[in-house]
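Figure 3 (text version): structure tokens given as input.
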């Protein structure tokens, strides 16, 4: 073997990135990439994910985001090897988890969680912070914070009651048993449960359909949906009217009307 053909001694030492980031046809796919640790959330992964969300927010070419995991897990929650005292746990929530969850909710793009395997602890919260969830039939949701003497966090106490009601949320949060994908679908935690071999194809199909809609209008719709969870009917009606005034002044609205009259698919540009 010639010297030029010999492998570099340090090639095997280059670590894999904790997050894979791919953009194609208006869809950004974020893949949690710590499969040997069941995609547990350590600081490099959390920082990379928050940075990706901020980049996507500034990228008008991205209309839909897919969040999934590499290997056999979606996300097993906090990496307990970074365990600290109670004060540091609170700081970690304030400095990383909370901005991450808020970032996903404020991102005016449609976000789909493709739950390919177990989601546990903060991994459940991460999935619930997405707009839509498709789960592999083999996936499961493990909320049991009580097993390690902690409180449900990262928005879990906010999202879960709004999805399943307070009584069922209490049962799920206080109980130790995993929730199967089929049960999660029955309860309304996930939008659909599909065979694992079909998960990414189903997700890609949904993402493509969502990406074809008017991106500015759908971003405003997400804004309205978020607000509706916190205000009364009259405030929600007033906010809808305000946002409709914005949407009605966009070029995408004009294109939608023109496409309707011409009986053709609209070509939205996000303007």
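Below: residues designed for each position.
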């Amino acid at each position: 073997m010639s010297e030029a053909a010999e492998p570099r001694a340090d090639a095997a030492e280059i670590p894999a990135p904790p997050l894979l980031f791919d953009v194609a046809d208006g869809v950004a796919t974020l893949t949690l990439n710590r499969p040997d640790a069941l995609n547990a959330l350590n600081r490099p992964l959390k920082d990379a994910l928050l940075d990706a969300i901020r980049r996507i927010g500034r990228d008008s070419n991205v209309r839909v985001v897919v969040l999934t995991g590499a290997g056999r897990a979606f996300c097993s929650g906090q990496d307990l090897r970074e365990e600290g005292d109670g004060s540091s746990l609170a700081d970690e929530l304030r400095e990383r988890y909370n901005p991450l969850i808020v970032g996903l909710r404020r991102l005016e793009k449609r976000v789909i969680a493709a739950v390919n395997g177990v989601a546990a602890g903060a991994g459940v919260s991460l999935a619930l912070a997405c707009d839509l969830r498709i789960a592999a039939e083999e996936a499961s949701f493990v909320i049991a914070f009580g097993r390690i003497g902690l409180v449900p966090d990262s928005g879990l106490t906010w999202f879960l009651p709004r999805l399943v009601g307070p009584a069922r949320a209490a049962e799920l949060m206080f109980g130790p048993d995993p929730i199967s994908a089929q049960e999660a679908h029955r309860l309304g935690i996930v939008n659909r449960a599909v065979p694992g071999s079909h998960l990414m194809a189903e997700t890609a199909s949904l993402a493509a359909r969502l990406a074809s809609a008017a991106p500015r209008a759908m971003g405003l719709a997400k804004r309205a949906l978020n607000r509706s969870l916190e205000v009364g009917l009259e405030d929600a009606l007033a906010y809808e009217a305000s946002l409709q005034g914005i949407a009605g002044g966009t070029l995408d609205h004009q294109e939608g009307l023109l496409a309707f009259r011409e009986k053709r698919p609209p070509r939205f540009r996000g303007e």
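Residues 1-7 have pLDDT under 50 and may be disordered.
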